[in-house]
Design goal:
122 residues, alpha/beta, five-stranded mixed beta sheet, EC 5.4.99.5
Length: 122
């Protein structure tokens, strides 16, 4: 079965290091919590809000061991009035036997406001 794993975070500023750091932190937790292996991933989409232009957050995926060949693409998020600022959203598509309701969708920083219903307790 192919399943999507969602993740989102926010950056404190439109700064390359900040964007890459929060993106890597989010990706690593998505990978760990869902026991994802790079060879099982079809592709990863990363969107950013219009206020994040300092770098492509997708390039941080190349720094994670074993993820060199996973297709990844950055894109602009729809500019909806009053939406969450400095937001990075990730959709990781992977082959898994994990049931949909057991997928761990990960939200960090201000992005926890986006889908509190998907955040699993400790």
């Amino acid at each position: 079965m192919t399943r999507g794993i969602r993740g989102a975070t926010t950056a404190l500023a439109n700064d390359e290091k900040e964007i890459l750091d929060v993106t890597k932190n989010l990706l690593e937790e998505m990978i760990e919590e869902n026991r994802v292996q790079a060879h099982d991933v079809s592709h990863v989409f990363i969107s950013v809000t219009k206020d994040l232009t300092a770098t492509f957050p997708a390039k941080v995926l190349r720094t994670i061991e074993g993820w060199k060949y996973v297709p990844v693409m950055c894109m602009a998020e729809i500019d909806v009035p009053n939406s969450l600022e400095r937001c990075i959203r990730i959709m990781m598509v992977t082959n898994t036997t994990t049931p949909q309701e057991e997928i761990h969708h990960i939200y960090h920083n201000e992005a926890v406001k986006l889908r509190p219903d998907l955040i699993k307790g400790e």
